[in-house]
Design goal:
With 154 residues, the chain is of the alpha+beta class. The chain is built from three helices and seven strands, in the order αββββαβαββ. A five-stranded mixed sheet has the order 1-2-7-5-6, covered by helices on one side. The chain has a two-stranded antiparallel sheet with strand order 3-4. InterPro entries: Endoribo_LPSP/chorism_mut-like, RutC-like_sf. This is RidA family protein.
Length: 154
């Protein structure tokens, strides 16, 4: 097990199997030293952990936990390409989408769930640029979707 996975385990998290794509795309793609993940939903064992919108059906705290599931799925997609998360030299960018009620403005707090977990897992290499975007609806009525870009070393 990698040092990154050890830190995840110490924090109470387990890396899942790579989520099966729901349409015509791959979970992650490598171009040179960069790996781009597809948007990852909060899937557990192939099922959405929750549905609905933040500010209506889902609390900020629950949204943060769902963002953690999304980023764990993204990390699994990265590991599938490089074999070991210790090869990640830097988390470059995180983009989080939050299905939001019209009067919900806490997208950054929701995506903090993903950002903070990346910091726990990768330490200083987990610092990243980020966007937290409100959306009217996400696939399968998911509350959150997260994609990441990482730089890897060989």
């Amino acid at each position: 097990m990698s040092a990154v996975e050890d830190r995840l385990q110490d924090a109470g998290f387990t890396l899942p199997e790579v989520a099966t794509p729901l349409a015509a795309y791959v979970p992650a793609l490598r171009e040179g030293q960069l790996i781009y993940t597809s948007g990852q939903l909060p899937l557990q064992n192939g099922e959405l952990a929750a549905t609905g919108k933040l500010g209506a059906d889902v609390s900020v705290e629950e949204g943060q936990k769902l963002a953690q599931l999304c980023v764990l799925n993204a990390m699994a997609a990265v590991k599938n390409l490089v074999g070991d998360l210790d090869h990640v030299a830097q988390v470059v960018k995180v983009t989080g989408f939050v299905a939001s009620a019209p009067d919900f403005y806490g997208q950054p707090q929701v995506i903090n769930g993903a950002s903070e977990l990346l910091g726990q897992a990768f330490g200083a290499a987990g610092s990243h640029a980020r966007a937290a975007v409100g959306a009217a609806v996400l696939p399968m009525n998911a509350p959150v979707e997260v994609e990441i870009t990482v730089k890897v070393q060989d």
